[in-house]
Design a protein that fits this description.
With 148 residues, the protein is mostly helical. It has eight helices and no strands.
Length: 148
Amino acid sequence: MCCNLQVITEKLSGLLQLTKSSQGSGPVGGSKHHQKAVRDFDFLGRAFFPEVVEQIDETISAVFSAGNPDKFFSNYRTSMDFLSNFETELGSPEAVEVFRESAAYKTFMGKWNLAVYFQIRYCLLPPKKQSVNMITYLIYLSKLGSRK
């Protein structure tokens, strides 16, 4: 598991136990007070991830800047790796599908201006390579854009 996601298993496991889908709801064991479980609430997708997006936007929004294409690509790849690992924590393909339809996910993905990134990359190519590599870049762009 990605080291950035350890907070999910180390700090949020009790909360996740309260909110994961299950047969009915009932008391959660191990607690002196036996809290009643709140089932079928997508804590990771509806509470945790929107806060992550908000914190990124407020504190390190420069990660979305395509002005330095090498840094942008590194930030983009790191973010996509994080999302891939995060989606495994959601527990099911159905949960991933719901997550990808969420406002927070769409907001996050919308911040990655891939069109500007590829324009900059294209302009950095020597003129002779521009026409030869255009097809390769378009194919690559379509693969990156398929996550949206």
